Amino acid sequence: MQRRDFLRAAAALAGLPLLSGCRQLLGWGLPIEVLRPGMADGHRLRDSAALPPPRSERRVDTVIVGSGVAGLFAGWRLAREGYRDFVLLNGPEPDGNAAAGAFDGWRYPTGAHYLPLPSPESGHVRELLAEMGVIEAGGDSLRPTFDERVLVHAPDERLWRDGQWQDGLLPRGLGADDDAQQRRFLLHVKQLQQQHGADGRRVFTVPTALASTDPAWRALDGQSFAAWLAAHGYTAPGLLWYLDYCCRDDYGSTLAHTSAWAGLHYFAARGGQAANAADGAVLTWPDGLNPLLRHMRVRIGAERQLPGAAWRIQMQGRQVQVDYVDAGGAQRLLARRVIVATPLHVAWHLLPQLAGLGFSRAHLPPRAPWLVGNVLLDRFPKEPATSPLAWDNVVYGSASLGYVVATHQLIRAALPERTVFTTYHALAADDPATARQWLAGASADELFGQAMQDLYTVYGARLRRQLLAARLTVRAHAMASPQPGFLANAGLAALRAADGPILFAHADLSGLSLFEEAAWWGDVAARRVLG
Amino acid sequence: MRDRLLILSVFVVASCGLAYELIAGALASYLLGDSVLQFSSIIGCYLFAMGVGSHLSQYVKDERVLDTFIEIELLVALLGGLSASSLFAVFAWSGESFRLTLYALVFLTGAMVGMEIPLVMRALNQRQQRFAELVSRVLTFDYLGALAVSLLFPIVLAPRLGLARSALLFGLSNVAVALWTCRVFRGELLRPTLQYLRSLLVLLVLGGGFIAADELTHWNEKAIYGDDVIHAETTPYQRLVLTRWKGDLRLYINGNLQFSSRDEHRYHEALVHPVLAKLPWARRVLILGGGDGLAAREVLKYPNVREVTLVDLDPAMTGLFARSAPLVALNGGALRNPRLRVVNDDAARWLERNGDVFDAIIVDFPDPSSFALGKLYSVPLYRLLSRHLADNGLAVVQSTSPYHAPRSYWSINATLRAAGLATTPYHAYVPSFGEWGFIIAAHRPGYTPPQAYRVPLTFLDREATRQMFFFPPDMRPWRVAPNQLNDQRLVHYFEQDWSQVIR
């Protein structure tokens, strides 16, 4: 029996209906809402229920299926180039991994929450940021000037270790050997940032499509990051915890299950700079990356965005037929070209002919499950005078990923009266299937306990008294994890090259889940449509 | 008749018992916050202690029941009656032991109160009352007393008398019950005279306390501020304390001096007039911060100003400075002036949401002593500000001290420039603060200090103004970086600057 059930039963037995009203007063039974975006539609699609005949049929030049970063970026590009004959199917998970929510106007992310400063290779992202006014000047230069409201404000990061906070996320004070290895590693990846392959391209870039294909460097993908680190003498526990944290944070996988190429990519591919911020700064909004998506939606126009989830995409003569379901029932679109901007495990069920394109089930990238918690606090918790609340707060040694403060970027004369903390947890410890089973079966209390792990470590259980509401977002197939060998995935290569009536756009094509990658494939697909 | 009196005393005793519990709970939530926790834990502790008291009551010998009842009443009167005052004192003088004192006091009072009803019941039982009737009557009055106080306390007593006096009043009621019992049961007491004397003594102590309660509270705050406290208030945003010492009125916010009436005219004249004297056409003026109305007082000296908008977060602050007689005398009733509009909102949020444009903007924000406050001295905020500034308007920013905090001061100057504003730095000597700095910002360069003033001033004249804009060699500009939100150098500068100044 769960705590809440027990309390309810006890209240009923004691004949004290009032007690249930007091539960909140006593700190029990906080309103916990569990969101499972896309789960019901996705599983219905997987289980392949038959679709009734469509009630409407509409012809359009291009259909974009899915409204995550890739789909919206494709739509943004089309609209920006003056191309109007297209529609975008929102799908069951609007905004995908960049979705957001709000408690009474206090906005928060339910997915990705920051964007690193875009490197010169990420011209497509810079273009979007410049249009939004986030890049104020120098969009083509090495160091553009960014809107300071969006550059993460100080203090940006801190690490909780042994009951106190340290600045930054690299653990300090773990001994001379750890410090030396940390310095050596940072120097090592700094060199790799400038490393070029035999083809003259940088070895590590965002987007990965522009990276060197020199097999000598690609060989890194043959081993795990853990193995690579061991082979290079990186054994210090503090450094290894930090690198493991980074892999879980970006890829949802542990060191042992991350490709060495991807692990190094995390450190060596970024390198965007700003005229008005330190290197390594990031861009963030109260509701994570959602404002980028809202901007793209405005450019696309509300009239081109259709509610509804795709059900089947197939060739019908020279046209592509997209069957989908909305509140009115089954509908059909007939298009010259379709950009499939869904995750590939969804595309697998949408497109019966995927195998014909050289993509088999074995090519589906493994997907990491995530749990994102958002809690509304009635005031800011007490912080030690020497280490004020940072934007990103991480617990050393934790299997979770810490918490981010949604109100951090607000400029206010006094502390905002409320705040939202967003906790992140990648279920990387178990294999994804086991983790998904747990997520599917766990009660709201169990999920809440998991989501609150780091907050309770830092503030103690008394923090519960400050919570007004909690919303948990279960993303059981959140992102592709770049396991060793992911670069050699021939199925992905086939979809990346597809330039027929059916095009693909998703971060999955890169095998790792980054905004820049998703946007890149959206851009590529849109440019193919534009010709 | 005697039995009825005893039953009536149950009513009083029950009222007092609940009152002490409520007072302790209210006081703890007031001083420590988190009212749910405070009330829950205090009620729990109190009820448990009452159980302990009831248990102990069996050890009172039958012949001593009435004597003990009187003694308990007096003890409750002292403990409960002085509870609020003594807890305030402990909080003011030694914060650490507050919780311990609180719970010890609650436990002792609870234990004493727990003994009262069992003793009364035994006293009545000795008088051959029928048991069923006895229990029914005692408990009826017990609960009635609780009801009376639970309504009286929040509606009448706490708001009218305050916590310290309410507690003393209930203590006096306990003494009254004791005196009354002494009188009515004189013959049955073992040592009636002694009990009488004791009761009178406690009456004297509590009565004196009741009269001196205000003094006591002031004395506690004086321990903190050094001067006489004439007003103290905890608002949802800050603690406001107003002190007076020989005509010098001072305002402290969260313990930091905001102004002294001796020299605030220097600060506020320097803040306002170099801008307004240059804008004879100014009609609309915006003041950010400055809920004391002192900057507004200076602004309102100009008849050309038609509309002053003052944005200050705390309605308690602007309310206090609009009502309290000595403060209204100080700010010349500025906050009640029909030309002035008070907006109680966060100034930065208001700037984001409001689209009005002003001829002059006076920015009087707190010093950049934390990352949160440092954001008020940033390029985005100054850009926002410049969007509210008329094309030929002027803004002035309180900018810390160019003498004591040169890095901070010149960093604020650099930040204003980075936001695309033309700046003119200046400074004035304010004895309470030391050498203090301000910066005038405009859309275009070319500001020159005023040569004369059209309004009556005490500090500024032509020569004083000239000196304000002159920076002697020991106050020359420092080469420092603007404050970028990404690293908030200003907050580090400010810390660095003041760590080198002994104040």
Automatic annotation (TrEMBL), chain A:
Domain of life: Bacteria
Protein name: Amino oxidase
Originating organism: Vogesella alkaliphila
Lineage: Bacteria, Pseudomonadati, Pseudomonadota, Betaproteobacteria, Neisseriales
UniProtKB/TrEMBL annotation, chain B:
Alphabetic keyword roster: Cell membrane, Membrane, Polyamine biosynthesis, Spermidine biosynthesis, Transferase, Transmembrane, Transmembrane helix
Enzyme class: transferase
Pathways involved: Amine and polyamine biosynthesis; spermidine biosynthesis; spermidine from putrescine: step 1/1
Domain PABS: 208-443
Binding site for S-methyl-5'-thioadenosine: Q238, D312, D346, A347
Catalytic activity: S-adenosyl 3-(methylsulfanyl)propylamine + putrescine = S-methyl-5'-thioadenosine + spermidine + H(+)
EC number from the UniProt entry: 2.5.1.16
Highest taxon listed in the record's lineage: Bacteria
Residues passing through the membrane, by range: 35-53, 74-94, 100-122, 134-157, 163-182, 194-213
Annotated membrane topology: Multi-pass membrane protein
Family annotation (Pfam families): Spermine_synth
Subcellular localization: Cell membrane
Catalytic residue positions: D364 (proton acceptor)
Binding site for spermidine: H268, D292
Sequence similarity: Belongs to the spermidine/spermine synthase family.
Function: Catalyzes the irreversible transfer of a propylamine group from the amino donor S-adenosylmethioninamine (decarboxy-AdoMet) to putrescine (1,4-diaminobutane) to yield spermidine.
Quaternary structure, from the entry: Homodimer or homotetramer.
Name the UniProt record assigns to this protein: Polyamine aminopropyltransferase
Source organism per UniProt: Vogesella alkaliphila
Lineage, highest ranks first: Bacteria, Pseudomonadati, Pseudomonadota, Betaproteobacteria, Neisseriales
GN (gene name): speE1
